[in-house]
Write a structure and sequence with these properties.
Distance between the termini: 16 Å
Largest sheet: 7 strands, mixed
Shape: flat
Structural class: alpha/beta
Helix content: 40-55%
Strand order of the largest sheet: 3-4-5-6-2-1-7
Order of helices and strands: EEHEEEEHEHHHHHEHEEHEEEHHHHH
Strand content: 15-25%
Oligomer: single chain
């Protein structure tokens, strides 16, 4: 995975006031020095120093720049690198990158800088994924989630579990070597206790995925109810613009309309759905079918009605889903006979702040802000699921008194699954899938 090539790419978006061009690889400082003019040559510079000068194409000055020098192994990639701060012009950036490529660099591929950091042991695979999540974070909670993972707390916990399992496997394999002497190196009582503890920790991590994935992807909220109850008006009120078409005609919304809104520090994905009712209209039936699918996928089902309106029979909600009852059009009546409902006027905005607070209260982020590990990545969840199944099988095998060889195999399966998360055991396909989500300069 490591390459001797010198790679270069923009590390920031172009077109702003300033931009950064990043270059990495053995000899990158000398290469940059070939087009840099300053008070002293860059090749004489110490690590973590800044140097003002110009980038020149022969006698032509391309731009005034500040060059940051990083010597190996004290850089993000663990290798020699430079970062050139320039004016944010696309033309200037393209010219400097062209000059660097003419000097011997090549354009970096997506995620190649982070992939080199992984190869150098500066970060593990889960931390590399957290880098991409930090860049993509659009709320305080999503940022906290990715930051905790990037700082290594998640990796440390997984490595500690993996280390305990490795120690046990070693003892079991020793027993196989001395099988004729009937020696027991791994105390079965302690082994069972350790396996049950590890299984419990893995189960807790798996349980955190529901919240973690919702924070990472946005909490899905399906707005459902009868036609003309005000679902689209509420969506527009929450978004702050006319995102959904509003009409007194029943069946105006025939497809789901989705929009994201950050409430406090959580991003919510609101899905305005077609009204639920009996109809012979083919298109309306298709819309209602999509509504039912949206209900099945939502973390929160926001059921809207009008005062004194007969309630609908909703599809059964699964574990983990939350139902919020909302009575709309309170600008027309004072009837508040539905217990536990949130009363609003989507048209005037009355009570909508209470609804926002109720939505925010459904997501518990206190543990996240205390630095607790929360799983948000589907790849990690699947690996944890395999580890959990293997640990359950190991406990069962221990109870049945199976051979040390079969017991060790179950434990090794758990070790392998945990190692896949941090990248200690991985494949080219996994790496390709992970780093394909990265931008070029990271």
């Amino acid at each position: 995975m490591r390459s001797s090539d010198i790679i270069v790419a923009p590390a920031t978006a172009l077109g702003g006031a300033i931009a950064i061009i990043r270059m990495s690889g053995e000899g990158s400082v000398a290469l940059c020095n070939g087009i840099f003019r300053g008070r002293r040559p860059l090749v004489e510079a110490k690590s973590h120093t800044l140097h003002y000068g110009t980038i020149c194409d022969g006698e032509r000055v391309v731009d005034d720049v500040v060059v940051a020098v990083f010597r190996a192994p004290h850089s993000y990639m663990g290798e020699e690198s430079v970062e050139v701060s320039i004016h944010g012009s696309r033309y200037i950036a393209q010219e400097i990158i062209r000059l660097l490529c003419e000097q011997g660099a090549r354009m970096a591929e997506a995620g190649e800088f982070s992939q080199r950091a992984l190869a150098a042991g500066r970060i593990d695979l889960s931390q590399a994924e957290a880098v991409a999540d930090i860049i993509a974070s659009d709320s305080r909670a999503a940022h906290a989630l990715a930051t905790t993972q990037m700082r290594g707390g998640y990796s440390e916990q997984l490595e500690a579990l993996r280390g305990e399992l490795l120690d046990v496997t070693t003892l079991l394999e020793l027993e196989l070597d001395f099988s004729e002497e009937d020696v027991e190196f791994a105390d079965r009582g302690r082994l069972r206790s350790m396996l049950e503890h590890t299984e419990g920790v893995v189960a807790k991590l798996m349980e955190s995925f529901r919240v973690g994935n919702a924070i990472r992807e946005g909490v899905a909220v399906a707005i459902v109810g009868r036609p003309n109850v005000g679902k689209s008006t509420l969506l527009n009120r929450l978004v702050g613009e006319d995102r959904a078409m509003v009409s007194d005609i029943a069946g105006t919304t025939r497809d789901t309309v989705e929009e994201s809104v950050v409430i406090d520090d959580i991003r919510f994905r609101f899905i305005d759905t077609a009204g639920l009712h009996d109809t012979d209209d083919r298109l309306e039936k298709m819309g209602i079918e999509r509504t039912e699918r949206a209900i099945g996928k939502a973390q929160i089902v926001l059921y809207m009605s009008e005062p004194s309106q007969e309630e609908l029979t909703l599809p059964a909600l699964s574990d983990g889903q939350t139902l919020l009852l909302v009575v709309n059009k309170m600008d027309t009546t004072d009837d508040r006979g539905v217990e536990g409902a949130i009363y609003i006027s989507a048209r005037d905005g009355d009570g909508v702040d209470l609804l926002r607070q109720a939505l925010r209260d459904t997501v518990d982020t206190e543990g996240l802000y205390r630095g607790e590990v929360v799983v948000s990545n589907m790849r990690h969840f699947e690996a944890l699921s395999r580890a959990h199944s293997a640990l359950v099988a190991a406990v069962s095998a221990l109870d049945m008194g199976v051979s040390e060889e079969l017991l060790a195999e179950d434990i090794r399966s758990a070790i392998t699954a945990l190692a896949e998360i941090t990248g200690r055991i991985t494949s080219d396909d996994i790496l390709k899938n992970v780093f394909s989500r990265f931008c070029i300069g990271k």
